[in-house]
Amino acid sequence: MVEFALVAMTLMLILIGIIQFGLVFSIQLSMDNAAQTGVRLAAIPSSLTDAEIKSTIIDQLSVVIDDISTNDITITPTIKQRNEPVTVSIDYEYDVLVTLGVLPETYNLTAQAVMMRE
């Protein structure tokens, strides 16, 4: 029984780390996809404003991130011209649910996509 008590804590820590990694990885992939969607919308000639593009990105991310705001999303340049690169960046600070004193309390996640304006 003593051996199980020693090994159980290590196994629990590894299990929690694997679950936490999966959550962070899922959010990072969602952010990458949202940045790609946003840069596609910004790169095509349309009447969409930056606020509407940010709203679309937030709608797409609302499935996995509930506290993202327009301040976390950057679209550059503000005046888009043909054959110029458009960049969409998303910065998000993810709060770790269970740290057990070993894992960091937050992760800074960043997603960026660049596309030429058509």
Blueprint of the fold:
Blueprint lengths: L1 H42 L6 H12 L11 E4 L8 E11 L10 E11 L2
Helix pairs in contact: 1-2
Total strands: 3
Q: Name the strands of the widest sheet in spatial order.
A: 1-2-3
First CA to last CA: what distance?
A: 67 Å
What would the average pLDDT be, to the nearest integer?
90
What sequence of helices (H) and strands (E) makes up the elements? HHEEE
Please tally the helical runs, counting DSSP H or I stretches of 4 or more residues: 2
User: What is the helical fraction, as a range of percent?
Assistant: 40-55%
CA-based shape = elongated
Task: Write down the domain tally.
Answer: 1
Radius of gyration, whole Å:
19 Å
Q: Structural class, from secondary structure content?
A: alpha+beta
**Low-pLDDT regions:** none
Strand content: 15-25%
Please describe the biggest sheet, giving its number of strands, its sense, and whether it closes into a barrel: 3 strands, antiparallel
